[in-house]
Amino acid sequence: MSELLKQLQRRRTFAIISHPDAGKTTLTEKLLLFGGAIQMAGTVKGRKAAHHATSDWMDMEKERGISVTSSVMQFPYGDGIVNLLDTPGHEDFSEDTYRTLTAVDSALMVIDVAKGVESRTIKLMEVCRMRDTPILTFVNKLDREGRDALDILDEIEEVLEIQCAPVTWPIGMGKRLKGVFDLRTETTHLFSATHGGKIKSGELIVGLDNPRLNEVLGDMADELREEIELVRGASHALDLDAYARGELTPVFFGSAINNFGVKELLDAFVEYAPAPRPRETRQRLVDPSDEKFSGFIFKIQANMDPSHRDRIAFMRVCSGSYTKGMKMRHVRIGKTVQISNAITFQADERRHVEEAWPGDIIGLHNHGTIQIGDTFTEGEELKYEGIPYFAPELFRRVVLKDPLRLKALQKGVLQLCEEGATQVFRPLKNNDLILGAVGVLQFEVAAHRLKGEYGVEAIVEAVSVSTARWVVCKDAKMLEQFKVKAHENLALDGDDQLVYLAPTRVNLSLAEERWPDIQFLATREL
Ligand code: GDP
Predict the structure, then answer these.
(1) How many angstroms does the Cα of residue 23 sit away from the middle of ligand 1?
(2) Other beta carbons within 10 Å of 312
(3) What is the DSSP-derived secondary structure letter of residue 402?
(4) Does the beta carbon of 20 lie inside 6 Å of ligand 1?
(5) CA torsion through residues 470, 496, 420, 455, sign
(6) Could you point out which of 13, 93, 382, 498 has its C-alpha 20 to 30 Å from the C-alpha of 50?
(7) Among candidates 501, 520, 504, which has minimal Cα distance to 512?
(8) Which residues pair with 138 in a beta bridge?
(9) Which Gene3D superfamilies does the UniProt record give (predicted)?
(10) Cβ distance 471 to 502 under 8 Å?
C-alpha cells in the first residue's frame, strides 16, 4: 500500500456540534486526555470563559496563541490520527462554525440528557445535512437526573430526522447511575466517578447473563436485561453504511465530566468514522488518494500570536501530501508560491510541519493574499466548492475619532474582514466603511481589535441598512442600468463584489420586483 493511502486511511477529521453548555469543552478535554495530549486539556478549559462574556473574550484575544492551537487539535489514538476542529461556541460566530463544518469528514453531536435536542444543535445539524456528514451522538451528563433514554432517542429521530442506533445503554441515571451496557460486546462498564484528569475505568462485566451483574446491580440486573431486550426490539440496528450516508447515528451514553463512557465513544469513533472522503470541485471530484496535492482555506485568523503579528490561513488538505518547502499554485490569483513554514497543531506550541496528509489541517502565513475559500494545488485549475459567506443581518458604520488615521482604519478593517467574521461594505456614493455581521458582539470585537492591533480609535454607530444582497446579472447592459438607478444603495464588499444594501426589507422586495433579471443573493459562495 502506498504511504499516501496508509496515511490517509489513518486520518479522522471531525468537529463537535452541540448547544452551549451540553459539554463540548469537557468532552474535548477528555478526548485529548485519552489521546495523550494532556497539556492541552487546561488550554481548552481556559478558553471556555470566552463563550460567555465579551470582556472575557477580549482578554482571551490577547492570548491568541492559545486560541489558535486549540482551534485545531491533532492527536494520535491507537493506530489513528485524529484531527479535532473546534467550532466557536458563541452564537455570534456561526459563520465560522459553518465553514469549519465544510472542512471535516464527520461530526460528533453532544446532547444534554436533561435538555434533549436544543436549538443550536438543530441549526448545526442542518449544516451537516448539506453534505450528508456522518454523525456520532454522545448523550451527556448521565450523572444527573435526565430524561428517559428512549425518550431522548425518539426526540433525536423526530426533530433531527436521523435514525438512532444505540451502541451503549445507560444503567440508571443521576444518583442511581450504575454504568453503561455495550450492546455490541454485551459488556457492562460499571460507573465510578473520576473527576479531574485521571483515566480510570470501572469494572467490566462480560455477558448479560453474568451472575456478577446480580451481585453489583441487585434488582437492577433483571431490569437491565428486560430493558436491553426492549431496546434491541425498538431501535435501529447499527448500520454503518447508513451512518456513512448521514442517515443513521450511532448513540453513546456517558458523563464527560466523570470521564465515563468516553473511551467507548473514542474507540468507536476511530473505528466507524470515515477517513477523508472525495470532495467536489467545480471541475471534478477529487479523491484523497490522488497523488497531486490539493487543499482549500476554510478559516483565517489574524494576529493570533502577538509576538508574530501575522495572520494564519487554515487549510484542509484534500489530496496528495504536503511536504515542507513544496511549491503550490494559489489558483484564484494564478501564482505559484513556495511554502516552507506551514504550521501544524500537534501541541500547544507552534511547530513547523514537515509533512501533512489528506484530512490534516495546516496553517499558512498570510500576508493578505489568501482568502477564505481559496484553493491550492500542484498546478491544476481546481476550485473547491461549498464554502459559504452569508449576508449579514446587522450593520454599523465605522467612524474614526482621528480622521488622519483613515489609511490605517481601511487597512485594519479589510484585514479583519478577511477572517470572515465581519464583512466590510464600501458604498459607491461615499467614503463610508460599513461593517456587517451576524451577531452584535462582532462589532465590539472589531472596534477593540482596531485599537489594539492597528492603533485606530474608532466607534461604531447605527446605519440605516437592514440587509444586504450580492448582485449578479448575466446581462451586462442591464447591470449597468441597474448600477445607475440603484447607485444610492450599492456598495462593494471586501472582495470588490457588488452588493445591494437595503434600508428595509420592503425596499429589497421592491427592488427584486422591479429588476426581475437581477439576482439578489443572500449567500455568496466562495
Ligand atoms: P460547552 O458549552 O458545550 O463547551 O459545555 P462545557 O463542557 O463547558 O460544560 C457545561 C457545564 O456542564 C460545565 O459546568 C461542565 O462542568 C458541566 N458538565 C459537563 N459534562 C458534565 C457531566 O457529564 N455531568 C455533569 N453533571 N456536568 C457536566
Answers:
(1) 4
(2) 26
(3) S
(4) yes
(5) negative
(6) 13
(7) 520
(8) 110, 252
(9) P-loop containing nucleotide triphosphate hydrolases, Peptide chain release factor 3, domain III
(10) no
**CATH dotted code for 391-525:** 3.30.70.3280
Per the annotation, does 19 bind a ligand? yes
Name the average pLDDT for the chain.
86
Q: What are phi and psi of 513, to 5 degrees?
A: -65, -40
Q: CA 338 from chain center: how many Å? A: 28
CATH number for region 280-377? 3.40.50.300
User: Separation of 21 CA from ligand 1 center, angstroms?
Assistant: 6
Atom of ligand 1 nearest to the CA of 140: 23
- Probe ligand 1: pick from 31, 257, 260, max atoms within 8 Å of CB? 257
Strand locations in 39-157, DSSP E? 72-77, 80-85, 106-112, 135-140
Q: Is 287 helix (H, G, I), strand (E, B) or coil?
A: coil
Residue 174, ligand 1, Cβ within 6 A:
no
| Residue 142 CA, ligand 1 centroid: distance in Å | 11
Say what the pTM is: 0.80
As given in the structure block, the three cell numbers for residue 395 are 450593520
CA 292 to chain centre: 26
Q: Is the dihedral of CA 121, 122, 125, 126 positive or negative?
A: negative
Number of neighbouring beta carbons within 10 Å of residue 331: 20
Q: Confirm or deny that 401 is annotated as ligand binding.
A: no
ipTM: 0.99
Q: Which of 436, 438, 420, 451 is nearest to 311 (CA)?
A: 420
Shortest CA distance to 342 belongs to which of 365, 319, 366, 321? 365
From residue 523, give the alpha-carbon distance in Å to each of 100, 368, 393, 466: 16, 23, 12, 15
Residue ranges, comma separated, of all CATH 3.40.50.300 domains in the chain are 14-67+87-273, 280-377
pLDDT digits (tens, 9 = 90+) for 328-380: 999 988 999 998 888 877 654 445 568 899 999 999 988 778 888 899 999 99
Indicate where the chain has its CATH 3.30.70.3280 domain(s). 391-525
> Thinking of the domain 14-67+87-273, which architecture would CATH place it in?
3-Layer(aba) Sandwich (3.40)
The answer to whether 161 touches 134, Cβ cutoff 8 Å, is no
